[in-house]
Design goal:
This protein is α/β, with parallel strands linked by helices. It folds into 2 domains: 172 residues, 3-Layer(aba) Sandwich (Rossmann fold); 173 residues, Rossmann fold (3-Layer(aba) Sandwich). It has 12 helices and 15 strands. The strands form 2 sheets. It has an 8-stranded mixed beta sheet, with helices on both faces. α6 crosses α7. It is globular, with a radius of gyration of 21 Å. The two termini are 32 Å apart. Bound molecules: 1,4-dihydronicotinamide adenine dinucleotide, pyruvic acid and magnesium ion (MG).
């Protein structure tokens, strides 16, 4: 199969769909790889390094889209990209279609078979192609929260860990999955006072064991979240209902319960966000303010640490990508974990949760 890697074009997105090491694995199995010039620049990999392992370098994204049987990307295709996709072609990337009906329609019209990283499942449960980026984003969320809390950035002016004699910041984490756990680890590491909310009691038990009393766990209801908001300096939005839009756990009217210039970091923004007042932002302009509360809602947080993120992502996507290259879209029928990954096929949304969420 001819596998194509265009350069990412989302705002400040420096990751790449295939690292040279991953491209080499495809080539060693008899596939051909074409790479848009400069696609690896964000991870300090030159065209020459891709050429050295046998990839062909082409000068435009248009050529990659026109020639490749499968496009391997990182972020969802932007409007100018989805019009270049076609029937019979496979797109393997993050899509996050539930909150994005325009993209869903664009992919349906293109006729492409689109496999979304975030809905591929794993033998041990979980979402193995989302997990590595959730690890990155969870860890980054505390850095982002700490930055936004600084008075010189418009924040409340609290130091995460406090100092002897002065209380640390209170960090409230909504959702105790991969993002939430990594956020809690980083917040604990900085010395903050941390509370994690989840709807799964087994998960809360695991977190309680894991953190050995260093974080408090709470069952997530509208009432308990309201109580937590009054004391929070930073709230991390980390909930997920796979395939669906994120539930709005914090309505706008609850912002008035919060301390002045406290910070919301909505990591779940790629699924539409879990605060009513969230709207996607970019690394260029990451924050905005509503009712005296700072919002950070960057939808491609891992794009800021592309070296770590591209390798972490490729480690997880490689076996699935190789199966798609080997068998084509039939790989989705053969592997029950790839089946839910297929979101769009022959002009239809074929993942039930995604279709239900879109109302299609
Ligand atoms: N903005 C960005 O750059 C990135 C965003 N993400 C997003 O972060 C979100 C979280 O991802 P993961 O941690 O991997 O998901 P996960 O599935 O590991 O964890 C989600 C957790 O939310 C819990 N949950 C569901 N409903 C809840 C509720 N009402 N109250 C409290 N908890 C609830 C679930 O029980 C689960 O433990 C996803 O939307 C994901 O796409 C991930 C990576 C990068
Ligand atoms: C998961 C996701 O949205 C990202 O890595 O950008
Ligand atoms: Mg207030």
């Amino acid at each position: 199969m001819l596998v194509g890697v265009p350069k990412e074009i989302k705002n400040h997105e420096y990751r790449v769909g295939l690292t040279p090491e991953a491209a080499r694995e495809y080539i060693s199995r008899g596939h051909a790889v074409i790479v848009e010039t400069g696609a690896g620049a964000g991870i300090d990999k030159s065209d020459a390094e891709y050429a050295r392992i046998g990839a062909e370098i082409v000068s435009t994204a248009e050529e990659v889209f026109a020639r490749a049987d499968m496009i391997v990307k990182v972020k969802e295709p932007q409007p100018g990209e989805w019009t270049q996709l076609r029937e019979g072609q496979i797109l393997f990337t993050y899509l996050h279609l539930a909150p994005d009906p325009d993209q869903a329609r664009g992919l349906m019209e293109a006729g492409v078979s689109a496999v979304a990283y975030e809905t591929v499942t794993g033998p041990g449960g979980g979402l193995p192609l989302l997990a590595p980026m959730s690890e990155v984003a969870g860890r980054l969320s505390i850095e982002a929260g700490a930055q936004a809390l600084r008075a010189n950035n418009g924040g409340r002016g609290t130091l995460m860990g406090g100092v002897p004699g002065v209380l640390p910041a209170r960090v409230v984490v909504l959702g105790g999955g991969v993002v939430g756990t990594q956020a809690a680890r980083m917040a604990v590491g900085l010395g903050a006072d941390v509370e994690i909310f989840d709807r799964s009691l087994p998960r809360l038990r695991q977190l309680d064991e894991m953190f050995q009393g260093r974080v408090s766990t709470r069952y997530s209801t509208a009432g308990t979240i309201e109580q937590a908001l009054t004391a929070a300096d930073v709230v991390i939005g980390a909930v997920l209902i796979p395939g669906a839009s994120a539930p709005h756990l914090v309505p706008r009217e609850d912002l008035k319960l919060m301390k002045n210039r406290a910070v919301l970091v909505d990591v779940a923004i790629d699924q539409g966000g879990c605060f009513e007042t969230s709207k996607a932002t970019t690394h260029e302009n990451p924050t905005y303010e509503v009712d005296n509360v700072i919002h950070y809602c960057v939808a491609n947080m891992p794009g800021a640490v592309p070296l770590t993120s591209s390798y972490a992502l490729n480690n997880a996507t490689l076996p699935f990508g190789l199966a798609l290259a080997e068998k084509g879209v039939k790989a989705c029928a053969d592997d029950p974990h790839l089946t839910p990954g297929l979101n769009v096929h022959q002009g239809k949304i074929v993942n039930e949760a995604v279709a239900a969420s879109l109302g299609f």
